[in-house]
Amino acid sequence: MALKKKGRYWYGDGPEDIQAEMQRYSQANAYPATRFAASACSCGRRVFKLETDEDTGAARRTCTACGNVHLMGDSAEYADEAEFENHECVCGAEAFELLSGVALHADSTDVRWYYLGCRCTNCSLVGVFADWKCEGGDAGDFLAAV
Ligand SMILES: [Zn+2]
Ligand SMILES: [Zn+2]
Questions:
Q1: What are the residue boundaries of the structural domains of the chain, listed by start?
Q2: Cα 116 from Cα 24, distance rounded (Å)
Q3: What's the CA gap between 106 and 41, in Å, rounded?
Q4: Ligand 2 center to 109 CA (angstroms)
Q5: Which of 51, 90, 105, 126 has a CA between 20 and 30 Å from the CA of residue 97?
């Protein structure tokens, strides 16, 4: 692991660094993320443009290699009412590796809070770009769909 801080931002080498930052962020949010999954396109690539609507609780990723568009987790249920906003890194790039994390209800495998972490493929910035209260059901099913 090689998470490094430069100014206000953290930079890392891979999904394990996104996870480390997400653990810190989610603990500060009082609902620690305990299960994680990285996004991969059906074409096998792992770099995406990302759009989210935190108020509605929906995220949409677009593969930069093949253009496939995917609604993440349970987002398909909320996409009709979502107003998606595109994410841009502080360096200006719009291509990210994505790691999802969830906090669970006590004594349950049901999702309570959803965290969406990114690593910029241009400058290596890592961060939790979006998070929301989420009733996404079983964490295994939810994370299989990110
Ligand atoms: Zn693809
Ligand atoms: Zn960047």
A1: 4-137
A2: 13
A3: 31
A4: 34
A5: 105
Report the C-alpha gap between 120 and 128 in whole angstroms. 11
**If 0-12 CB within 10 Å is exposed, 13-18 middle and 19+ buried, where does residue 43 land?**
exposed
For ligand 1, the distance from its centroid to the CA atom of residue 8, given in whole angstroms, is 32
- The answer, yes or no, to whether residue 61 has pLDDT greater than 80, is yes
pLDDT, tens digit, 9 for 90 and up, residues 106-117: 999 999 999 999
Q: What is the pLDDT, as a whole number, of residue 2?
A: 82
CA 22/CA 126 separation, integer angstroms? 9
- Tell me: pLDDT of 1 over 80: no
Which tens digits make up the pLDDT trace of 40-51? 999 999 999 999
CA distance 98 to 129: 10
